[in-house]
Design brief:
Order of helices and strands: EHHEEEHEEHHEHEHEHEHEEEEEEEHHHH
Largest sheet: 5 strands, mixed
Structural class: alpha/beta
Strand order of the largest sheet: 1-5-6-7-4
Number of helices: 13
Oligomer: single chain
Strand content: 15-25%
Mean pLDDT: 90
Number of strands: 17
CATH architecture of the largest domain: 3-Layer(aba) Sandwich
Distance between the termini: 62 Å
Radius of gyration: 24 Å
Helix content: 25-40%
């Protein structure tokens, strides 16, 4: 544990550290450093940096009484240490300290300051009144490995066209699978940025990554998909999320970003006799942003379809809402195969509800077909066999 040195250290959380790392890796370009008061105002007025869209100033304004005292007492050219989770994370040479309006900052990020919004509440708690500007150096800095990972994958298949998707896959369902396949149809290489949120209410990143890897390895062409972990910090929140996604994807070497039509940040509206969205406001970011169809299961078509091509009404359509499917899993209910691939459902249930059965062996042989031999079975095996019974139709 690093000892705090009075008036020489700032405390930041993992979200702030993640944003600083993105800039240092060049992944938020044209942002290349922290912004001062004048530069921040220019960005607020124009939403541009060097002729490219960037939705809000990139600043560091950590909350807390101790941080506020330190920031208000610092002088130009003074060097400080930035601590993250009690460990030395970076050093910074002070150029400028200036006051900000936290409420205005919140509005620029989320489009609202309504505290009932979960993102607004979380960011309000971690945002202070003083911002600091200056050159910083990350201690024990290591170059981002994912850039090389994508470059290597590109070289293996000689990919010319690289597309990207941002998803939580929380959990991975059938509509996710269709979106991935549709994107692969028109690209050489697909980069899936798998989000790593900070809230504990989500499935763990490890579970979501393993489920996604299972789908990719078993049901997609080899070497055509790369998974990149992306810490889902506050800068990706709110109605500007798609813009930041586009910038990050472009700086990873992608030339196309595919966004689902039901994306919360899309903000479709009608103007000048045509449908428009926040995408129409993007300037100077050299990446093609495409809006994908919304997929549903239609009981008349009896398959997964695009809402754009299905002639039947909503009363025939089953939508894919990840939060509701996750709720079924958390309650221990095996989702129908039309919602989730059974192998993935079985895997997720076995991970989030381990050892839930008192006598798995007895249960397995009492209600499932068996060859008569006593064999050891896992909970994942049990869920897979149980799904087969769910799919039996002769008695329904």
């Amino acid at each position: 544990m690093t000892l705090l040195r009075k008036n020489k250290t700032l405390l930041i959380d993992r979200e702030a550290a993640s944003a600083l790392e993105l800039v240092k890796d060049g992944l938020l370009y044209p942002v290349s450093k922290l912004m001062g008061k004048d530069k921040s105002q220019l960005v607020l007025d124009s939403s541009l940096i060097e002729g490219q869209t960037f939705p809000f100033p990139f600043i560091l304004a950590p909350a807390g009484n101790r941080n506020e005292k330190v920031l208000s007492s610092l002088s130009k050219d003074e060097e400080i240490t930035i601590l993250c989770e009690g460990k030395e994370f970076a050093t910074l040479v002070v150029d400028e300290i200036f006051k900000i309006n936290p409420t205005d900052r919140i509005k620029h990020i989320y489009g609202t300051d309504d505290l009932t919004h979960p993102g607004v509440m979380a960011t309000t708690k971690r945002l202070g009144k003083w911002a600091i500007n200056g050159q910083y150096q990350i201690i024990n800095y290591q170059a981002n490995k994912n850039i090389k990972l994508i470059a290597d994958a590109k070289e293996v298949i000689n990919a010319k066209h690289i597309s990207s998707l941002f998803m939580a896959a929380n959990p991975l369902h059938r509509a996710h699978e269709r979106l991935i396949r549709q994107t692969l149809d028109s690209t050489d290489l697909l980069v899936i940025f798998l989000l790593k949120p900070y809230e504990s209410k989500n499935l763990s990143y490890e579970i979501r990554k393993e489920a996604l890897e299972y789908f990719i390895n078993n049901y997609l062409p080899k070497n055509k998909v790369v998974i990149v972990p992306l810490e889902n910090s506050y800068i990706f929140a709110g109605f500007n999320e798609i813009i930041i996604d586009a910038i990050v994807a472009r700086n990873h070497g992608c030339d196309r970003l595919v966004v689902g039509r039901n994306h919360a940040g899309l903000g479709m509206y009608y103007d000048c006799n045509s449908n428009k969205s926040i995408i129409d406001k993007v300037v100077g970011i050299d990446i093609d942003i495409q809006i994908a169809s919304e997929y549903v299961y239609c009981d008349e078509c009896t398959t997964l379809v695009s809402k754009d091509t299905c002639p039947h009404g909503q009363h025939h359509q089953t939508s894919y809402h990840a939060d509701s499917i996750l709720e079924l899993l958390e309650l221990g209910i095996l989702p129908p195969a039309v919602l989730m691939r059974k192998e993935i459902s079985a895997f997720v249930l076995s991970k989030i509800l381990p050892n839930r059965f008192k006598n798995l062996g007895k249960l397995y042989y009492d209600i499932l077909p068996a060859v008569g031999l006593l064999e050891e079975h896992t909970e994942e095996d049990f869920y897979l066999e149980l799904m087969k019974l769910y799919q039996t139709t002769s008695l329904t």
